Amino acid sequence: MTFREATRDDLPEIVRLLADDPLGATREAPGEIIPEAYLHAFAAIERDPNNTVVVAELDGTMAGTFQLTYIPGLTYTGGERAQIEGVRVAAEQRGRGIGQIMITWAIDQARARGCRVVQLTTDRQRPESIRFYQKMGFRPSHMGMKYHLKDD
CATH number for the 2-135 domain, one of 3.40.50.720, 3.40.630.30, 1.10.287.990, 3.40.50.10860? Predict the structure, then answer.
């Protein structure tokens, strides 16, 4: 497995992966032509040195993706934290240990950067994901809350 920073050309496949589960199917818009909002978001991520979208490749094909964000903070004695977001493994690759390799790689990147904490969220409607992350050593230490803003 190899890891690399995603490019704009990867976006249609990344969006397809994000949409390839019951929750993602309700909020993503996959296709060869993707909405401009994805392009604007990707451009903002590219400009931000604390943000990257990662592609995991196996035998020349995209096996998975995730976003890794470094967040400076005052807590943990001014320690930086890494946020893992948008984790997806291609359906045809699931059950082969790809997710574990991806998360281990992200944790190693955070450790090498000197982060004090690695954090992520997963929807309560994804019990398999919750079990997976707990098996990886993540603990449900906080109660996450979201306030969704709607378009007018």
Answer: 3.40.630.30
